[in-house]
């Protein structure tokens, strides 16, 4: 298997956009290709993620239209992948595997989503279709509900009072909003404090409004290449050194909602392939769709022992300047969450950090970073480890 | 790149089903795995196609749930792909590329669809989202409309009177219905004649009801493996010797609706990789979503010169016993068209023909066969060539 490098990356400002998915992805795709020192004719395949296109814009089968707008050659196939919130990460991983396997030398992968058109309540209900339609969504489960259950279980399992846990959860939101202040591409650029979170509207007890990420519009793209040719095109290629992806079925199979089984397995694959452990990571972008989700993720990724992660944000250990900065971009919580684009934006952030091009939020000397994306209510997890 | 073999294949009877996508795909997936001499624990990745799951069943993100029902290991990822009607073929092609590239040794690929729940008029409108949402579907284009335009253009371009062309088109339907009589898995098992077609309800002039394939429910699955180990598991592995996939954007870019640009390119790739030409094919399963579509396909695949394919069915050349049997399964027209499963069922038919296990519709001594699947209004074409 060949080594795979990331050449150019690009994303737009996440938030509320009047642009279509095709417009957004074409813009970031062309920017990523240009930053790679390539032209559209050089791209041998497109792997695009988009989850809600049919619902938000009446556009299914978007991949060949994006392909055409980008000016890619007819002989270069366009494939749409969908794995709920992990969509773009899965697209990038499969694209990277095809480069590693020698099928392609240069590919474009990423995602796009308009998630604000229908409004948050309807989008929440619509997106609940990514949970199990027989056991879960039809009986009223939505994603805020699942993570609310996980927060209750976390508090009970580790004997932490719920008010105490909620304050620590709020610190996750405070940290990620603070990070986003340094990220001009972030959806939210608004400093908040613990009281902002605790005084906000209740969404799904114990999750309040500021425990929840927003739906956002946005797009992000990365160009992947065979590593042995990367330096012909860019000065600072970033290398993919480990990847993992795992699946789990309905929520009932999780047994313990505080430990996402697919993440434990996906992370094991990625660390094993990279030949490193969590202690080697300088920066992490992970799936903080809710504040409790960041706590669950830092534990399953091995940054903290199970039951020990909840104080990390409060202690400042996961903030910029802390032991292992988590979500320097602002995360899903404050950078925003355009579903099918989220994983690609996580890769963009890690690549910019490892290139020391992250501006005010740069982690000095960051050499190795990890991307973690969760799809659905724990059905899919995909991890990618990158190094400079 | 390694050679890739097909081990076990399976499909259910296409038609109107009360089963869910998960039930249908689990049944055919387990059957394909068993026929491969494997167990679910041996499957290293699942590639599943499904287009309308969110609309028909409120089930997006179906791949990890299918993965779980099949009993695949957590570490084996589940990926959903979507390329309109070419969905399953694209899933199989990408799965095969990952086996060829050495990423996986044994994978399950295929598709499932419930396309009858909402009824044909609403399904037609819903599925029109696979055309371009800005230039096409929003101005009223549906797939019957696109192929009706193509039929008019074909008649005009080659100076054939429309009544004459319609009789030849009707012969395609007659042939494929006749083939389906020999296929116990076919949606329709009903002999028709040219008058049946010409007296049927007008759908989109000149396409009448019997010029159009039905929406069907169904699922199909194939197990792919590294070819060097195939004979450890099955007596008659079938080998993938060529594949192609190409993309084209909005319909306006086609210039000539009688020549599907993506098909010309995808077929070129597949023939080139296989080192054969159309004259070497013993059997073809191609995308006859409408009768005119079969005529366009046999021409772009090189079985007939452009403008010469319209008489093929009338002359009996594409029937069982003819020069090159096309759609011995009954095709989309009579076997049925469960969108996301269609391409996998085409592969199932070719594999059974090449194994001489096609029962009453067996083409004696068939050695090489081609699968052709079109996605959307010409946006995606995927071809796979197999040999015994």
Word description of this protein:
Two copies of one chain form a homodimer. Chain A has about 400 residues and is an alpha/beta fold. The first copy, chain A, has two domains: about 5-120 and about 215-240, 3-Layer(aba) Sandwich (Peroxisomal Thiolase, Chain A, domain 1); about 140-215 and about 240-385, Thiolase/Chalcone synthase (Peroxisomal Thiolase, Chain A, domain 1, 3-Layer(aba) Sandwich). In chain A, about 35% of the residues lie in helices and about 20% in strands. Chain A has twelve helices and eleven strands. The first copy, chain A, has helices at about 20-35, 55, 65-70, 85-100, 120-125, 145-155, 160-180, 195-200, 260-275, 290-300, 330-335, 340-355; strands at about 5-10, 45-50, 80, 105-115, 200-205, 205-210, 220-225, 240-245, 285, 370-375, 380-385. A nine-stranded mixed beta sheet of chain A has the order 3-2-4-7-1-8-11-10-9, with helices on both faces. The first copy, chain A, has a two-stranded antiparallel ribbon with strand order 5-6. In chain A, helix 1 crosses helix 3 and helix 4 packs across helix 12 (about 340-355). The longest helix of chain A is centred in the middle third of the chain and has 19 residues, at about 160-180. The two termini of chain A are about 20 Å apart. The mean pLDDT of chain A is about 95. The interface between A and B is large, with 64 and 64 residues.
């Amino acid at each position: 298997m060949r080594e795979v490098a990331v050449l150019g990356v690009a994303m737009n400002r996440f938030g509320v956009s009047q642009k279509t998915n095709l417009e957004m992805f074409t813009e970031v795709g062309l920017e990523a290709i240009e930053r790679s020192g390539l032209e559209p004719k050089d791209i041998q395949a497109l792997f695009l993620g988009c989850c809600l296109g049919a619902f938000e814009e009446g556009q299914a089968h978007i991949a060949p239209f994006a392909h055409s707008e980008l000016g890619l050659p007819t002989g270069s196939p366009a494939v749409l992948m969908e794995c709920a919130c992990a969509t773009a990460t899965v697209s990038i991983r499969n694209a990277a595997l095809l480069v590693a396997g020698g099928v392609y030398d240069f590919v474009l992968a990423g995602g796009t989503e308009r998630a604000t058109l229908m409004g948050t309540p309807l989008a929440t209900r619509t997106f609940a279709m990514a949970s199990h339609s027989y056991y879960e969504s039809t009986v009223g489960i939505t994603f805020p509900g699942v993570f609310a259950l996980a927060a209750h279980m976390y508090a009970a399992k580790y004997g932490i009072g719920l008010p105490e846990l909620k304050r620590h959860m709020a610190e996750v939101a405070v940290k990620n909003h603070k990070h986003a202040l340094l990220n001009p591409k972030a959806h939210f650029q608004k400093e908040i404090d613990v009281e902002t979170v605790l005084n906000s509207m209740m969404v799904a007890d114990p999750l309040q409004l500021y425990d929840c990420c927003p739906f956002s519009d946005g797009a992000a793209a990365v160009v992947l290449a065979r590593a042995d040719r990367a330096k012909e095109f860019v000065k600072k290629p970033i290398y993919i050194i480990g990847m993992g992806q795992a699946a789990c079925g309905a929520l009932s199979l999780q047994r313990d909602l505080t430990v996402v089984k697919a993440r434990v397995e996906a992370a094991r694959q990625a660390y094993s392939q990279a030949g490193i452990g969590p202690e080697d990571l300088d920066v992490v972008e992970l799936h903080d769709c809710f504040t409790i989700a960041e706590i669950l993720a830092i534990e399953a990724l091995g940054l903290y022992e199970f039951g020990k992660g909840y104080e990390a944000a409060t202690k400042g250990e996961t903030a910029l300047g802390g032991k292992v900065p988590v979500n320097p971009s602002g995360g899903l919580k404050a950078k925003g969450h355009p579903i099918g684009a989220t994983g690609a934006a996580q890769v963009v952030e890690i690549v910019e950090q490892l290139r020391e091009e992250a501006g005010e939020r740069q982690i000095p000397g960051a050499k190795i970073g990890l991307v973690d994306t969760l799809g659905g209510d724990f059905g899919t997890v995909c991890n990618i480890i990158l190094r400079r």
